[in-house]
Amino acid sequence: MKSKETYQWEITIRFLFLSIIFLGFLYPLTITGIGGFLFPKQAKGSLIESNGQIVGTELFAKKETSELLFRYRPSAASYSTLPSGASNLSPSSLDLKDLVEERKKELMLMGINPIICQELLYTSGSGLDPHITKECALEQTKHLSSVTGVNLDSLKTLVLQYVESPLFGFIGRGRVNVTKLNQKWKQMQMETNPK
Predict the structure, then answer these.
(1) What confidence score (pLDDT) does residue 191 get?
(2) Burial level of 105, CB count in 10 A (0-12/13-18/19+)?
């Protein structure tokens, strides 16, 4: 006859192996399969393709240096996913004040109102956020119209096509995914100026 202690050890070991099988293999595989079936694009990383090439993901901003594109929020991590993060500069930091002033001057030189585009002055928490406000995207159209010669109304129409509504209609605010917007903008430029 088994002792009570031996019996408890047997139950513990059985539970451990069942937990490993269920929680370590069956559950993750089931959820991954369901996610891949119901949300195939999202399960693969919301990738953006152009001419059969993967050029980015809708989930992250990416480093773009061209003045011919819509601007993302600044990144304290140079848009690197490893390590991502904020600058951790406090609101009273003189370094933060200098960075904001420098960005403000740059925007004003481009004809972009820093009051309308305040998100272009401060980094996001992750440094990878691809979203800006609709108002900021529309403000940038003036600069892009002047440097590319593209009609301002055409640019505004393009921005309005990429406005994402608040979650469930009331959580957050309308925003524009700059990664998707820039991809379409690049396609439009290629179509009008093929080289």
Answers:
(1) 75
(2) exposed
The CA-CA-CA angle for residues 184, 187, 190, to 5°, reads 155
Helix (H) or strand (E) run with residue 112 in it: none
> 135 Cβ partners below 8 Å, 6+ apart?
116, 117
Conformation bin of residue 172: beta by default, left when phi > 0, alpha when psi is -120 to 50 = left
What sections of 39-174 are H helices per DSSP? 40-43, 94-109, 134-148, 152-161
Task: Please state whether beta strands 163-164 and 131-133 pair in parallel, antiparallel, or not at all (unpaired).
Answer: unpaired
How does pLDDT run across 51-65, given as a tens digit for each residue?
888 888 888 888 887
Token pair listed for 195: 């080289």
Neighbours of 58 (CB within 10 A): 15
Q: Which amino acid is at 50?
A: S
Taking Cα atoms as reference points, which of 178, 195, 187, 189 lies closest to residue 51? 187
In sequence order, what are the beta bridge partners of 57?
47
Q: pLDDT digit string (tens) for 62-95?
A: 888 788 999 988 887 777 777 777 777 788 889 8
- Nearest alpha-carbon partner for 141 in 161, 166, 167, 124: 161
pLDDT at 5 over 70: yes
